[in-house]
Amino acid sequence: MKTLKIRGQVLAALALLTTQSAMAQEVTFKIAHFLPGVAATQKAVLQPWCDEMGQLSNGRIKCQFYPSMQLGGTPAQLADQVKNGVADIVWTAPGYSAGRFPRTEALELPGVLPLGGLSGGRAAWEFYGQHLQTEYKDYKVLAMHGDGGMNIHTAKKPLNSAADFKGIKLRSPNRTIARSLTALGATPVAMPPAQVTEAIAKGVVDGASAVWEVLLPTKLDEVTKYHFETPAERPVMGATILVVLMNKQKYESLPADLKAIVDKTSGLPLVERYGKVWDEAAVAARNKVKAAGHVVTVVSGSNYDAILKQLEVVEKEWLADAKSKNIDGEALLAAAREAARKQSR
């Protein structure tokens, strides 16, 4: 009996030490993305998010950032980098990996998401929870948000209507927007944000589809003069969906209390951080280019309607692709529009 009592005491002590060790565990998340460190995604969203997790964990959660693809590879490879453990967390656009996340593209189609980072982000997160979890089963998804809506920035030629797109070369961020530009008569050129400014300066492209948020950190405002955007009360002409993905094994390896902190601060709270910052960045960029004498054109009602009409072919192409992959595209698109409608009230 005495031996059993001692053995029980030893086991209890070991259990206590194991618990204390888990409670004392510290972790440093390697976070990678494709924009410079001064961009809003790191400076105004991910860094404050990391700071909050650090405070809630009494300093046990830390972050090390690798902006501008410092871990190597291309933006299209970020999804694989986090899946394979090269990074613990990445911020990327699923659309950079063309065709890999086909259900997500429903949110990027013309006339679906509402204008704005906050409303678009909330719609995207609701849609993810209802329809996209299987598509991201290999990841721990910490956030999904919209980019605020497709804007076009050009160096020499102002855009006012669908006809103005004919014959120009424009950078496209994803397959859906590339199809939209083609439907409007432009030539889409795929390239990551870091290469766009130089490409415009050298005349490789005439402009770019890019959101207001990336304009200043990439210095796109220094090589463009004309800016074309969606009216505030209408759905966007196109979008790029962005995600914060975490390595699933890294998340599962965390002690329970650190998992709880990650869960508490991510999801909708992180989506809303992005949305608010994106909307603020859009105002700042718009004001800066206007003060510099640039021309900002909000496409007028009749021109907007004509553009959306011309872009109906993009939706048809996506539905055909979805059908070929045994995806119920009609149902997904209806659900995406309903999620967006709720945020447009």
From TrEMBL:
<dbReference type="InterPro" id="IPR038404">
    <property type="entry name" value="TRAP_DctP_sf"/>
</dbReference>
<dbReference type="Pfam" id="PF03480">
    <property type="entry name" value="DctP"/>
</dbReference>
<dbReference type="InterPro" id="IPR018389">
    <property type="entry name" value="DctP_fam"/>
</dbReference>
<dbReference type="GO" id="GO:0055085">
    <property type="term" value="P:transmembrane transport"/>
</dbReference>
<keyword id="KW-0732">Signal</keyword>
<feature type="signal peptide">
    <location>
        <begin position="1"/>
        <end position="24"/>
    </location>
</feature>
<protein>
    <submittedName>
        <fullName>TRAP-type C4-dicarboxylate transport system substrate-binding protein</fullName>
    </submittedName>
</protein>
